[in-house]
Each structure stands twice: as structure tokens, then as C-alpha cells.
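Help: why these numbers?

___
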Amino acid sequence: MARVDDALAELARRFELGTDAVECLHKLLTLVATDPFAPTTVRDPAGILGDHIADSLIALELPVVRRAASIADLGSGAGFPGLPLAVALPGAAVALVESSARKCEFIGRAVAACALTNTSIVHARAEGWTDGIGSSDLVTARALAPLDVVAEYAAPLLRLGGTLVAWRGRRDPAAEASALRAAEQLGLEAADALHVVPYAGAEHRHLHLFLKASETPPRFPRRPGVARRRPLGAGATASDR
């Protein structure tokens, strides 16, 4: 565990995190490692630190993430990347959006363990969260859905000028082309994907950014499930509403 503590301290230096943040991240790591109902297959502390915590915090390399006042983390799962970002950005309001009640219960335990006061847990599908429409400066999504589907989930939730940050592994030209086609219909503009190295050995990690440049058409969000069944990047039309 000493090596994990050293690695966590190095993360704190890298991202300029204070003592309170480090203590909170340590509690989060411990909970994920020991809670039998943690919704992740990664249970080794070193793996949790790299695959979950460091991979979440890497978004802090983006100024648009650091200055966000309102963040929605879609498909939050075990709370990543939303919880580490909430720890690192105490001035931001972070909504952890998750459709699974069991996962929401775990996120609630994590929020309590870290005594976070800047988070809210939203038990809903992204398409069904109508209270969140137009409410976020930043939407994050990690291991949620194909990139074009993530763009459709995120666009209605973003304020004009807001940004979607989607975590991905190796570049996939076909998937990126589909996301561009979807973005054109959603009021989003894609930026160049950013290659990031959250921890040693993570050679093929990328963050994909989409800026909300114009208002999303009022027909979005479509009904829950439609975005996956008939993705815009594959040529879905208004008849799919």
C-alpha cells in the first residue's frame, strides 16, 4: 500500500491537489477496493489508482475542465470520472448520472465516505434527465457508449459554449467519422482528439472534445434507447423520434 500512497502523492503534485483532496481520494480508493458491491472488476489498489483515479484526473490537463462550474458525468458507474473530478474541483457542482439503482447506491456510499458536498446523484438515463437540459458547462463520459451515441446523450444537456469530454482508447477513424456526422446534427463541433498518458503504460488513451457551437434541435433528446438503436452517425432521421 505504501507504493500506492506514493503514487497518489505524485498524482497530487501533478494536478496540484491539496491534502484534503488526497485524503478523500484515498478513502475513495479504499472503498472501491473493499466494498463487495463496488460496480467494477478492478479491485487491486494499484489498478484502481491507475485505471480509475488517474484516468479520471487526466482531464484536469484541459483548461475547459478546470474552469467548469457545472459538470454532468454520464453513466457514472462506480463514480468515475465524476467523483475524482468533484474532489479536485470543489467549486464545481457535479451531477453523477446513472441509470442503475445499485450503482447509484454505491456512489452514495462513496459520496458519504468522502464527505463531498458538491455532488448530486441522478438516478436516470441521460435521455430521460429532462431537468438537466441546458444545465451543464461540461459533460463527461467514460466507457459509456459509442462516440456518436455519447454525443447525442450529451448535446441537449450542455449550455451553449459547453464542452463534452469523452474518454477513449485507440483512435478509431470509423467511429470518429460517425461521431462527426452526429455532431453536425446536434449543434456540436469536434476538436482534435487529445492523446493523454494518465499513468505509465497507458499508451493509447485519448480524450475527445466536442464544443456546443449552436443550439441542439428541439427534437433531442430522442426517446430512451433510440440513440443506441438508431445512432445518428449511421444516418438516423427525424422519423426515429
Notes: The domain at 62-240 is CATH 3.40.50.150 (Rossmann fold).
